[in-house]
Each structure stands twice: as structure tokens, then as C-alpha cells.
Amino acid sequence: MLSRIIKSVGFMLVWALMLLSIYLFNLFYMKPVSIDHYLGKEIIKDLTNSPEYMTYLGNLDGLDWLTGHNSKITIPNYEDIAEDLNSEKRKLDILTRYNDKALSPLQQTTKQIAIFDTKNNIQELEDFPLHYYPLNQIGGAHLNAIEFLSDMHQIDSYIDAKNYIQRASLFDESFEGLLTILERQAKENIYAPDFVYVHVINQLDELMNHSLENHPLYSQFVNKISKTDVSEENQKALAKELEEVINNHVTRGFGLLKDFMVKTQKYANTNDGIWSLPNGDEYYQLQIRSYTTTDYTANEIHEMGVNEVKRISNRMSEILKNLGYDTENKSVGQIMNDLNEDPKFLYADTPDRKDIVVADYTAMVKEAQEVMVDYFVTMPKADVIVKAVPEYSEQTAAGGYYQSPALDGSRPGVFYANLYDIKQTPTYSMRTLAYHEATPGHHHQIAHSLENESLTLYRRFGYRTSAFSEGWALYSEQLALEAGLASNKYDELGILQSELFRAVRLVVDTGMHHKKWSREKAMDYMKSKTGMSDTEVRVEIERYLVWPGQALSYKVGMIKMLELRNKAMSDLGSKFDIKKFHSAVLDHGIPPLFIVEQKIDEMIEESL
Fold it and tell me: For residue 17, what pLDDT is reported?
């Protein structure tokens, strides 16, 4: 016991000294000796400014006595934008003053990444600080607040439970702060499209009118605290305290947001694409650069998508023809839509359907973990589990998504599968989603980075891009197919349909945000090309509209990784090693694609 106390106190003192050093740096504004130290300091500063991020990391509870982060949530304010912009400008000034000749090769790469990211941040904060929708149907502040507290806040003790309640009591204050941003957007005539209003108002209504037992904050709290050593008497008292907080603060906060949405709905944007906002075309080009880490134009990406849709559709048509389907009179999309309706590929709508699907997904993930040992030098230590998307967000959430594990192992990675609509889960499409979200996709890549002790703090947590992470996840689907994990032709169709889906994204995202397509035209195109269900198509298209450019990153990233693999195979011939290639891709955190290309070139040179 004494040794554990000493270790804990030592940990706290180290963190206290680290924070003191940050304070002294800010006080005297001294340029640090090492770029790694400087960027590490910036990470820690951002970390201590975000109670949610500190909780998300999962291993900083020993610091709570100093920061109190476990009982806090972020209180946003419009005035923070100017402060953030000044901070990014100071950061760029410091970064550019580092002499490349004095940096190691690893540090030179770090500098490239940090400058690229900082310049993008400055342009967004300076030119487009309000070009986003804080309230939206898939990642709005109202949904994030519920998900964070119910899913991320661990309850292992009485103090943890009190902190949970305290955080819930700050919901109304946090949403009041958010209103300062929403009201400033209104002054700039920036409003979300009408469909966003419809979804968000309905979601807020539901969150405000849950019965206590079904309220996600209450039900999760009761479930978590029941597994602790907290006495039954205290559990009841705490539950009663949370009930009062929900009534007086949580519901009030949601009411503030709803009042704003109802009041401004008449001003909803009648156009869907981001082009309709002030300087929308320039903003979209910035989003393309940020999300794809390339200088492709919207037109170039659109044409890339059209060509990829044609190529993948031709391959699917070939398989469907061999399986006996009428490819002469029906398009690939029509046939895939028929497959979506075919009962032999659908689960029965029974009360335990979700449990059955989760169990089947879990078996697929376990199988992939066993097979993939032949393709990687190391496998992640962190486990990954499968859960259904929470009911309060499943109607508007994507088909699946991933949540990272905690650094200290207290929380595994989670692959969330959306099981709202039976037709969202045809059996032939399940494997590709499992490989994308879990192994060898997001879980493998993200856990690998978190567990890579050779990476600096900045390279682990300071920068990430979906061009890499989503590009890797889509590449992983094809890798799984190559590894024999989808030998059934229907499963291969599922993987190809997934790739086709991402190729279609290139067309519809640029179509809506650059070529001024309507939401309906984009849905018709996606439906005709992929055969996805109406529910899936609507959810996806509406997602792209509130998250411009992000959907481009998947296919652009995959294309680059396959291009680099083909280059390595061609240059190295018999010396090519798939394990070494994957290490060269994965061992450097989550870098821009131009850095991945540099690392593959270095691997090729070292292997010759």
C-alpha cells in the first residue's frame, strides 16, 4: 500500500512540476531548446484546457486533485476564437524559427507536420471562424455532451459519481456559452440547412422528454454505480441528486438550444452546400486541403470519383453476372438494392436482434485478429469490443464508428454498429464494416499509435488527419479481402460496395459543395450507384452536408496508400515485405499523406 501511495504522489508531483514549467514558459515567453519539448508543451496546454480530453485519455485521474477536470466540462464562448487565432499565430512564428539543420530527421518531419496543420488552422480561424454548424444531427453539441458523460466518464467510486453529477449540472452553462457562437453566426447570416433544424429540434425534444428511467444520463449512471462498492443508501441519494440536476440544469440547457433553433428556423439556409455561405468556395478548398492533405481541386476530385465509380461498378457487375444476376437489364445499384431487400441477407426482427448482430460482429473481429498476425510486425495490446449505437442517436448516426481505447487500459476500443434499421445490416456487408472499424482498420491503426512509445507526445496526440486514418481503414478492407477473410463472393461484393460507396462520396461531396447539387440529386445518385437503403443514403448525404470535405479523405487516402504499395512492390521486387511496408505506414503516428510518401521512399531506399 505504501509503495502505491509513494508512486501516486510521485506521479502527481511530476505533473505539478510539468505544469509549473508550462507556466514559467508562458510567463517569460522563452523559446524552448527542442521542438519536441515545445510541441509537447502545447499539447499539455491544450490538454489542461479541455476537461473532456483529459477524461478521454483515461489515465490522468491522479492529476484531478490539481486540475479538478473530472468535475468540469468546457464552457465555450465566441471570444475564444480570437484567442485561439493569436495562439496559432504565435505557434507558427516559433515553429518557423527552428533551424532545420539543427533538427534530427524525425524532428524535421515533425516540423513539416506542425507547420502544415498550423497554417490550415490560422486560415480557418482568420477567414472562416463561423463556417460550421455547432448544432447538427450527427455530432452536435447536444449529442456530444450526452455521449461524453454517459460513455466516457468512468464511475468507480463515490467521488466519481459526484463528479458525474457536477458535470451534468454544468450543461446549461455550457449551452449558454454555445449560444454566444450561434448568435454571432446569426448576425453573419450563417444558418444551417432546414433539414438540420428538423432533426436537431426532434432530438432536443426527445432528450427533454425522456422518462427518467430511459434518460441516457440517468440510466447509464444507475448502471455504472451499481457495479461499484458505493452503499445502496448512497446510490439512491446520488440518483436522486442526479434527477434534480437533470430537471433543473440538463433539460433547461436543452431547452435553451431548442428555443434558439425554433426562433431561427425561419431563416434556415434554403441551399444545402457550403458554397452558399460567404466565400464558401474558398472555405471548401481549405477543407479539401485539411482533410485530404493534398492540393487537389474540387473538380479534380470529382473526376477521380466518377472514374473510380465506373471501375468498381464494372468489377461488381462481373461478379454479379457470375452469380447469375441479370446485369444486362439492371444496373449494379439496382441489383445491390434488391440484395438489400432479400430476406436471406437480413436478420429477423426479433427482440434480441441487436444482441445477435453484435455477437456476429464480435466473431468476425476475433477471426480478423488471428489472421492479421501474418501482415504486421506487432498487433495492438488494447482489446476492441463491439456495441450497438446508442438509441438516442441511432436514427441519424452513420452505419458504424470507432472510439479509441484509454491509454491506461481501463477502457477498450469500441466499434459501434448502427442497428436501427434491419436493412442497414445485410449480412454480406458486415465483414467490411468490421474490418474498417476494428481490425485491421481503425482499432489496429489507432491503438498502434497510442502504444508506440517511440513517438513524441505531439506525434501521438498533436495532429491527426482522416486522410490517413480513414484512408488506412478503407485500405484495410481491401487488405482483409486479399488475406482471404472474405472468400464468399457475396462478402467480396460487400467490400466492393463499401469501396464504391467511398468513390461515390467523392462525386456527391464535391457535387453538393462545389457544383451546387441539391440534396435530392445527391441522394438519387448515391442510391442508383450503390444500392444502399433509403435510410442509409439519407443519413450519409446529410452527414456530408454538415461535415464538408471529410468524406473525401477515405478514397483519396486509400488511393495514395495503394499507389505507394504498388511503387514499393515494383521497386523492391522479391525484397518487398508487406510487414515492413505496413510498419513504414503506421509507425509515424497519423501524418499527412505527403509524409507517408516520404517514409515509403525511405523504406524503399533502405531495402535496396
Answer: 44
In a 13 Å sphere around the CA of 233, the CA atoms on its Cβ side amount to 0
State the Cα–Cα distance between residues 585 and 592, nearest whole angstrom: 11
DSSP assignments along 509-576, one per residue: HHHHHTS---HHHHHHHHHHHH---HHHHHHHHHHHHHSTTGGGHHHHHHHHHHHHHHHHHHHHGGG-
Does residue 389 contact residue 395 with C-beta atoms inside 8 Å? no
Cell 507556466 sits on residue = 23
Q: What are the residues whose beta carbons fall under 8 Å from the beta carbon of 243, sequence distance 6 or more?
A: 212, 218
- CA-nearest of 2, 25, 36, 12 to 459 is 36
pLDDT digits (tens, 9 = 90+) for 407-431: 777 889 999 999 998 877 899 999 9
Q: Which three cell numbers stand for residue 370?
A: 488471428
Q: Facing residues of 401 across strands?
A: 416
- In terms of C-beta distances under 8 Å and separation of at least 24 residues, what long-range contacts does 179-188 make, across chains too? 179/256, 179/257, 179/260, 180/76, 180/77, 180/78, 180/79, 181/76, 181/77, 181/78, 181/130, 181/134, 182/134, 182/135, 182/260, 183/78, 183/260, 184/78, 184/130, 185/130, 186/264, 186/267, 188/130, 188/278
What angle do the packed helices 280-292 and 105-127 form, to 10 degrees? 160
Asked if residue 512 lies in contact with residue 160, where contact means CB atoms within 8 angstroms, the answer is no
Give the list of residues 6+ apart from residue 397 with CB closer than 8 angstroms, or none.
Answer: 138, 389, 416, 418, 420, 539
Kindly write down the DSSP assignment for every residue of 332-368, as one continuous string: HHHHHHHHHH-GGGS----TTHHHHHHHHHHHHHHHH
C-alpha cell at 68: 479538478
Query: What are the residue ranges of helices labelled H in 402-533?
Result: 430-437, 442-450, 457, 466-482, 489-513, 519-530
Nine-digit cell string for 390: 446508442
Query: In terms of C-beta density within 10 A (0-12 exposed, 13-18 middle, 19 or more buried), how is residue 169 classed?
Result: buried
| Domain spans of the chain, in order of start | 139-269, 287-564, 565-607
Note the pLDDT tens digit of each residue in 79-133: 999 999 999 999 999 999 999 999 999 999 999 999 999 999 999 999 999 999 9
Query: What burial class does residue 363 get, using C-beta atoms within 10 Å of its C-beta: 0-12 exposed, 13-18 middle, 19+ buried?
Result: exposed
Show Cβ contacts of residue 434 under 8 Å, excluding neighbours closer than 6 positions: 361, 364, 365, 368, 386, 415
End-to-end CA distance of the chain, in Å?
55
Cα separation, 567 vs 255, whole angstroms = 56
pLDDT in tens, 16-70: 444 444 444 443 444 446 999 999 999 888 888 899 988 887 655 666 766 778 8
Partners of 400 in beta bridges = 417
C-alpha cell of residue 60 = 490522468
Q: How far apart are CA 21 and CA 600, in angstroms?
A: 38
Report the alpha-carbon distance of residue 108 to residue 113 in Å, rounded.
Answer: 9
Could you give the CA distance from residue 549 to residue 281 in angstroms, rounded to a whole number?
12
Contact (Cβ atoms closer than 8 angstroms) between residue 585 and residue 441: no
